Amino acid sequence: MRYLPKSDSERRQMLEACGMTSPEELFSHLPEAVRLKRPLDLAAGISEYEIVDYFRRRAAENANGYASFLGAGVYHHFRPVLVDAVVSRGEFLTSYTPYQAEISQGTLTAIFEFQTMICQLTGMDVANASMYDGSTAVPEAAMMAARSTGRKRVLIARAVHPEYREVLRTYARHQGMPVEEFGYLPEAGTIDLEDLDRKIDDLTAAVVVQSPNFFGIVDQVKAAAEIAHRRGALLIVVFTEAVSLGLLEPPADADIVAGELQSFAISPSYGGPFAGIIATREKFIRQMPGRLVGQTTDSRGNRAFCLTLSTREQHIRREKATSNICTNQALIALMATVFMTVYGKQGLRELAQQNLAKAHYLAGRLKPRFSGKFFNEFVVRVDKPDKINKALLKKKIIGGLPLGRFYPELADSMLLCATEMSHRADMDTLVAQALMPAASALMPTLLPGEVPA
């Protein structure tokens, strides 16, 4: 009765109100041939404690206690317990969206603080209340650039997350928005500026780059901005590893920033839900999709918040709507807001430094394939990446991402990630017990008495 609250007597009363005596009469209008006469082929019900026991046993089969060196857009970071304590409160957990601003000041205040901190992180003037995730933020940013410039063509770097590029192509297919890719330098792993300069033209609305890029390399944002702006295009800078913004220079040369906040205390959860963002310069604010919460005063002169812009068809004329994005990721964005509040500027910087140091310790035991500077991910050449990952699993280690799936020219390479959750012993195990046979030929010869850097 806990999950089916209607008692037998209540069901009888409902049937009587309908002038019926049995549930079967509810379906009497259906042809006899399509009516099921037997019980559903389902297992018998079990008690609550048996259900809990079942799921505990299934959870024990998951990779609990495994070290992870898998990144590629979803990262293994520490989640402060305060995050769940806040977002589990009823006023946040049960609220869908701030339709009624006069009774949802708490939600609107949280969104306003979220927007403010995103602007501080990205160096932009305004940020929206969040997007579904980073992958959908990229095509929304591209369409925003097309509306702002009156152009259609989009150039995107091959060093941008391949799944983000695929989502962009899906969006663009019916938008009359041609998408073309430009390459990366095989030695450095950064964008090929000469290739970009050759392919950009006066019909290009946006140039899309990622930093750190999919290979973990800090890319050439300033140089890309110069090329884009010289031809009248906007520069969109993408990030997937939000923790990098605690240490790297904000992408202030961009016109639009699109990113993913999964690293800010949002559980990987088999791929979502996450929270994306779009931030931009003030002059493009009316082309920004989604919602924007602003500060105002109420009738008594008190500080208050309201939806300042909401450029979707439920609020404005359909032909003026900038996006079919229906809402914002309010609860997931709140997780990121609590995270940023807990860590603060200095804490986020220290967290980023930990990521940098641990990734460079691991890279020092191996030889990264690219020479470009990296944050907490890097590419290493290995022999048979899939086979190595199977060997690592036996050591309770989740390995890196084999790159051949997305980059055929890198079929002999793996993308590794180290975060603050990576322990030195696990990194040493990864190298010594699994990767060393493939990596030993790449390491410099040591003189007697020397140790690896």
Which terms would index this structure?
Aspartate Aminotransferase, domain 1; 453 residues; alpha/beta; three-stranded antiparallel sheet; seven-stranded mixed sheet; 3 domains; disordered C terminus; Aspartate Aminotransferase, domain 2
Structure description:
- Residues 438-453 have low confidence and may be disordered.
- α5 runs parallel beside α10 (330-365) and α10 packs across α12 (424-439).
- The chain has helices spanning 8-17, 48-60, 81-87, 90-93, 105-122, 134-149, 162-172, 193-199, 221-230, 330-365, 385-394, 424-439; strands spanning 67-68, 126-127, 153-157, 179-182, 204-210, 234-239, 256-260, 276-280, 291-297, 303-310, 377-381, 397-398, 401-402, 413-417.
- 35% of the residues lie in helices and 14% in strands.
- The protein folds into three domains: 1-31, no CATH class; 67-77 and 344-441, Aspartate Aminotransferase, domain 1, CATH 3.90.1150.10; 81-339, Type I PLP-dependent aspartate aminotransferase-like (Major domain) (Aspartate Aminotransferase, domain 2), CATH 3.40.640.
- It contains twelve helices and 14 strands.
- It is globular and about 80 Å long.
- The protein is α/β, with parallel strands linked by helices and 453 residues long.
- A seven-stranded mixed β-sheet has the order 2-8-7-6-5-3-4, with helices on both faces.
